[in-house]
Amino acid sequence: MNSADIAWMLVSTALVLLMTPALGFFYGGMVRSKNALNTLMMSFAALGPVAVVWALLGYSLAFAPGVPAVGSFAYAGLRDVGLQPQGTIPHLLFMAYQGTFAIITAALISGAVVERLRFSAYLAFIVTWVLVVYAPVAHWVWGGGFLATAGALDFAGGAVVHVNAAAAALVAAIVVGPRKDYGRHAMLPHNVPFTLLGAGLLWFGWFGFNAGSALAANTTAVLAFVNTLLAPAAALATWTLLDLSREGRVTAVGAATAIVVGLVAVTPAAGFVGPLAALALGALAAVPSYFALIYRARTTLDDSLDVVAAHGLGGATGAVLTGLFADPTWSGGASGLLAGNLWQVPIQLGSVLIVAAYSATATFGILKLLALVMPLRISSKVEGVGLDVTEHGEEAYTGGDGAILVSPKDSSFARQMAESVALSNGGGL
Amino acid sequence: MKLIVAIVRPEQLSDVLEALFHAEVRGLTISRVQGHGGEMEHVENYRGTTVKMALAEKVRIEIGVSNHFVEPTINAIISAARTGEVGDGKIMVIPIETIYRIRTGEQDQDAVTPVDTPPQ
Lengths: 429, 120
Known about the structure:
A: mainly alpha; two-stranded antiparallel sheet; 66% helix; globular; B: alpha+beta; Alpha-Beta Plaits; four-stranded antiparallel beta sheet; elongated
């Protein structure tokens, strides 16, 4: 084992973990104030249940030696996952690092279903999804599965994380249905500074996501790190120029989105392309997402926070451009179309389509099964009041006016609690 | 001339504004208020502290109208703000002594007649 590698991977794990709260702020700023806590909680909640099922079972399904389609139960309950080396770092650290990826991938899906999905249904969904969808797909690419055998290049998870989450998001938005106000009333972001804060923290954490995917403190990590600086910069510059040329004004929500699109696009490419190619990749990837965002808002698809346009399209564009720009002088092996490898672009495209198709199909199945045992949506009345009060019994912004302390000794306490339960079931107010 | 004061649910505000614009009511003021009107209080929990929220968020709409606009305005508000649950709000109609339009100094009826194309 190598102390430098261990140190870098410990830091990277913490950096990637920070991306999930960051995503919460990125998303939370874009919803209405009555749903701010609920949206933040959708990200924060992934930190608990998803990490637990990852440690107990998900990691084994993804990374234990198995068949090309899925791992096995060999590492279930962290059996044999200890401090012995896995490469140059302890196996346990590798498990934790991969766990942070599972957490954020599940949280990404929430952007498509904010402001109307029941919180309990959301929890049940992400826990199931991580085991049924994320773990096998991670196995395909990183666990020695069939996409790895086919030669697909996915350095840090363009397909595994972003295309995978976006395909699930698309299906979830359709199955859950649009918000009742969608297309009728303007629904504006309630706190754009939160969205910018979230985008900034995502960028910071993404250095661990991409450069950490080298799994060592080596030159590949340096390349991935620098590309994670350059590609979002180019995406942001391109987005700025598009905004200026179309509207004459550079928007803050646009800037936050551009950073995320650039980060998503460079994710599959980070350790395979040179720095100039990363600049080109970031600039090119901004364009389809920019126009997809404008187009989506005119459709009936209420992918509320544009997971498909930002992560799906950004991830797919990045994956395909990885097949174009992969450069053996930088990657030390993998080569793309510009380096004379005619097959890499079709392999990249194929891997994106396979991941998207599986994720979409399995997500549809999970949601339909869940719908048999619990309602997926909150009632239209609760949607009007907002999910902070009804799903969490808290408000993001309250001055405390008119709040009467309820003492547990109060004889009417039981009645109050009954009212609270009635409210969360859609009664009251 | 009457001053119409309506207290409505915040989540109905967009519908109410739409209905008012359809009824060609073009001048109004809104403010965010909190109040209590007999609806059931909701209970919140903050780290072991349980509180009963006695005040609910509402929106107060104030509209100065000429007499023949009173009826359409009230109808628009009621149709858009009603959900059928306790807590839908109130409408109060109050007589006005005088209204002035500040820009022109116009008074009463003239002051509440909408201006379609304001002079440059």
